[in-house]
Structures are given as C-alpha cells and as structure tokens.
Amino acid sequence: MTTVSKWFAELFGFGLKGAKAEAAKAEAAKAEAAKVEEAVKTEIPVVVKSSNCGCGRSPTGSCLGLHKLTEEEWATHEVNPNRIVAAVVDDPKEVEQKIETAIKKQKKAKS
C-alpha cells in the first residue's frame, strides 16, 4: 500500500473494523473541524454596506461607486448603457476616396 492509500484508508476508515474504524472516522472529523475553525479565525471579516444609488448610474440600484467617475470616464464605462465606443478612423481623405469609389461602382452597376 502506498503512503497516499494508507492515509486515505486511515482517514476514511477503510480496512479498519468496528471500534477502530469509528475512532478513525471521528479523528478525521475532528481534524477537519479544527482546520475549518482555524480558517474561520484567520479570515478577515468584510463589511458590505448596502445602500441605494443616488446618482442613477448603477444597473443594480445599489451604489457601486460609479458616481466617482468623471463625465468622460462614465461616457466610455462598460456599465453605461449609452456608452461611447471609440473606433479607429482612417485618414479623412482616404475615407472620402473610398466613398467616391463605392459610389462610382454603384453607378456602374446600375448602368
């Protein structure tokens, strides 16, 4: 039996009979409870304040701190349903040429 399988057998009482099996299970439960208790002691409590949103920007109705954003930040923020999406724009002259070319193609296709 490998070390891991011995540990597993001892932890869950496999291969043990009667009182020994029950004692092994009880010991494993105590050890697990001690680990949980220690973890709870070391956790840092987090206090969450639930308050209503006064700025009207929150999609949930609870304050998310969106009131702290400037108008420019809010205009492009992902939560803003009316956000402005910036796009890369070509050189205006190139765009104009592309439009003219497209118009010429349409006129040719109609002729």
Short description:
The chain is an all-alpha fold and 111 residues long. 54% of the residues lie in helices and 0% in strands.
Q: Total number of β-strand segments?
A: 0
Uncertain regions spanning at least 5 consecutive residues: none
Describe the global form.
elongated
What integer is the average pLDDT? 75
Q: Over the alpha carbons, how many angstroms does the gyration radius reach?
A: 33 Å
Largest sheet composition: none
Distance between the termini: 87 Å
* Helix and strand element order: HHHH
Based on secondary structure, the structural category is: mainly alpha
Helix content: 40-55%
List keywords for this structure.
111 residues; 4 helices; mainly alpha; 2 domains
Describe the structure.
With 111 residues, the protein is mostly helical. It has four helices and no strands. The longest helix has 25 residues, at 18-42.
Fold blueprint:
Layout: H1 3-12, H2 18-42, H3 71-76, H4 92-110
